[in-house]
Automatic annotation (TrEMBL):
<comment type="function">
    <text>Lytic transglycosylase with a strong preference for naked glycan strands that lack stem peptides.</text>
</comment>
<dbReference type="Pfam" id="PF03330">
    <property type="entry name" value="DPBB_1"/>
</dbReference>
<keyword id="KW-0456">Lyase</keyword>
<dbReference type="InterPro" id="IPR009009">
    <property type="entry name" value="RlpA-like_DPBB"/>
</dbReference>
<dbReference type="InterPro" id="IPR036908">
    <property type="entry name" value="RlpA-like_sf"/>
</dbReference>
<keyword id="KW-0961">Cell wall biogenesis/degradation</keyword>
<dbReference type="InterPro" id="IPR034718">
    <property type="entry name" value="RlpA"/>
</dbReference>
<feature type="domain" description="RlpA-like protein double-psi beta-barrel">
    <location>
        <begin position="49"/>
        <end position="141"/>
    </location>
</feature>
<protein>
    <recommendedName>
        <fullName>Probable endolytic peptidoglycan transglycosylase RlpA</fullName>
        <ecNumber>4.2.2.-</ecNumber>
    </recommendedName>
</protein>
<comment type="similarity">
    <text>Belongs to the RlpA family.</text>
</comment>
<dbReference type="InterPro" id="IPR012997">
    <property type="entry name" value="RplA"/>
</dbReference>
Length: 165
């Protein structure tokens, strides 16, 4: 009987269950004596930045230990997620490795990184998809695609000129 239920249990854990928030979070917070003020939704929808990315692992699969994000969402190794200090939570971003041109879309649902000048932390799977998991760090471009969930979701509107943004 348990074996018959396993596929359903596995599929149920694939979703990003929502935490205790509505729409998106932009409230300030404190970490290691510093105050961070996330940007507003309108500002975030036009946000692009370049800098150093790292990756972090908050979960394990066979040990059944799972991490939890700032939004209260469970983290599994196959999720394409990220942490950012000042983007509204949650939001979708496109992260491009500037060395090889590979890109991945990630859900930003956590805060960080709080080490040095890093701008974003990616899940192990996201780091592998854009080719820097073995190196640990990469120079990337981060572009916001949307902010919020459900009826609160707002999508970035970008103008196209000859196939370019």
């Amino acid at each position: 009987m348990l074996l018959r239920l396993f596929p359903f249990l596995l599929l149920a854990s694939c979703a990003y269950p929502s935490g205790n928030y509505k729409g998106y979070q932009t409230k300030s917070y404190h970490v290691r004596g510093q105050t961070y003020q996330p940007m507003g939704v309108d500002e975030a929808l036009h946000h692009t930045e370049t800098g150093t990315a790292s990756w972090y692992n908050e979960s394990s699969f066979f040990g059944l230990k799972r991490g939890q994000t700032s939004l209260g969402e469970k983290v599994m190794p196959w999720h394409l997620i990220a942490a950012h200090k000042t983007l509204p939570l949650p939001c979708m971003v496109q992260v491009t490795n500037l060395q090889n041109g590979k890109s991945v879309k990630c859900r930003v649902n956590d805060r960080g990184p709080f080490i040095g000048d890093r701008i974003i932390d990616l899940s192990p799977r996201a780091a592998k998809k854009i080719g820097f998991r073995d190196q640990g760090l990469a120079e990337v471009e981060v572009k916001v695609l949307s902010v919020g969930d459900g009826s609160y979701k707002r999508t970035a509107k970008r103008k196209w000129f000859f196939g370019l943004f």
